[in-house]
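Feature request disguised as a bug report, sorry. It would help if multi-protein outputs had a clear separator. Right now it looks like this:
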Amino acid sequence: MNEQKNNLVIPAAIIIAGFVVAAGIYLSNKGNSPSPAVNPNQNNTSNIVVSPVTSTDHILGNPNAPITLVEFSDTECPFCKSFQATMNSIRESYIKAGTVAWVYRHFPLDSIHPKTRKEAESTECANELGGQTAFWKMLDTIYTNTPSNNQLDHAKLPEFAKSVGVDVTKFNTCLASGKYAAAVEADFQDGIKAGAQGTPYNVLVLKTALSANAESVLNDYILKNGLGQNVIISSDKKDVVLSGALPIDMVKIILDTILNK
């Protein structure tokens, strides 16, 4: 009888131990999730609040494009590094065609990437000294060269600045001053207001609300591909959230659906 009892207890103990380990892994990884947790059965949410695009924003493409993609990103996030390549592909096929405009805003995840804020400031200094072209080149250079996860050597930032055509002495002075810390924080707060909890976090701001047909097709695509946590349509149909580093093929399908292609 005792042997039978022990035979039952041992497997039960193994199952319980396995559950505890799995729960621990889940909780330890939760803070590093590339996208916020959203009810997978809730594809529509309340209106998303994103600050209007102004002349102080970094924007590529036609300001009057049917879709403005506002990206909140962290240069030390490996998912953002991956998504930068996706966005550069979108740049070639949609931004140059005038159907999508790309707005980049900073969203430093300080608890895991404390270096990111200074990197964000470095892109703003490049912008001050070399204009929007220098900003986008500096951003690309950082993403290309960082190992991610807070591992970029900041001694390389002046080298990057020089490579994008910026005066290194003026760049160093600008970066040391911290003059763009407030601008980076303003972007971060805007991301919080827009619902960002992780990176990359993107809001597609539409000139015209989704048509009933486009919404139906998009909802079907979300359901079939298990994207309830990643693609969210606002209740007014004028914003679509893309949360996490979605692959290029998925992003293109979503954009084409919205554009009724």
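(second protein starts here, but nothing in the output says so)
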Amino acid sequence: MIKKLFFQALLGAFTLSAAQAAQAGSPDALLMQSLVDISHSRMDSALSSIDSLLKSNPNFRLAQLIKGDILLAHSRPISTLGNVSGAPQERIQGLREEAVARVKRQEEKPVDDMVPSYLVEMTKEQKYAVVVDLEKSALYLYRNDNGAPKYVADFYVTSGKKTGEKVSEGDKKTPIGVYSVTEHLPADKLPAFYGAGAFPISYPNEWDRHEGRSGHGIWLHGTPPDTYSRVPKASSGCVVLANHDLNEIGGYLQIGVTPVIIADSIKWENRHNEEAMRDSVDETLDSWRHDWETLDSQAYLAHYSRKFFSDSMNYSEWAKYKSQVNASKSWVKIGISNVSAFLYPGKTGFFVVSFDQDYSSNNFHNKMRKRQYWIKEGDTWKIIYEGNA
């Protein structure tokens, strides 16, 4: 027999339809099927699902624990997941937390009219975007559907052992911010610890460096051969996926292109509100571009925060430099294209935008990829950083 208190609390209103929505025969579907069967005392069916799961994934420790519970339930009451005498409680607790995270991810699948608020605008080149929810141990993959984010899939992930903003090397925290995939490191070039390979991301970014955050080597990577998945919050700061999940998502990632947005907890937004934000960003950029073309330095500089910084100048230095440049021009024409814009997680009134800039004047012409960070001061958007992307 089994006292189902833990399993009932774990599953709540979860139903078989959610499990069936997952890909038939997938590890997630089989795990959820087993848990639902346990909650309804269908122990033979639960064991069948777990055995199928372990046949293809014998190193899935959570599944091994659940199988142990099912077998023990025939001889004595089981009141919780991992009710094994003498087992290391810290390890068991981690597996319980993994079970909770996996169930919640299945229960709270994204709905069509809601998207992560951060995905304001993507270029045509950015075919996919990755958004990580550290609190839920979940990674969401979105496709660029004619400029609008379209949900593709989600995956269980492990993140840093400690929570909060990453500050320094070795603090065991996963950074929160807007990044991109910078390269692919194949498995044969790495120690076995990283499993199927790794995709480093661009931490620290310009804002991180301005805020004094340090460290390096933040990757999306796999798990060792003897480990299907790691418990939540077990890495040194990286985002870790099961190897087959990493291989799946790796097929969508574009080096130097795919955005990776990491949030403590995802803020979801209605699609219509997201479209309104996209329009607001485009209008803000166009106003900045227009005022630059007028050669009215006062109007142009009104778009910049007094807290502004570039890679080499503060606001006063920037204002002096741009005023001198504008005074030397008889005309300026600015073209802006291929805009990508993302609200910054963990901050209110803050977004980062990148775009192709085509600058022409009476005596100079150049093209560049530019990045700006905009902050809301009162009711007005102001540029706080500008530089090459």
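Even a blank line would do. Unrelated, but nice: The chain is about 30% helix and 25% strand.
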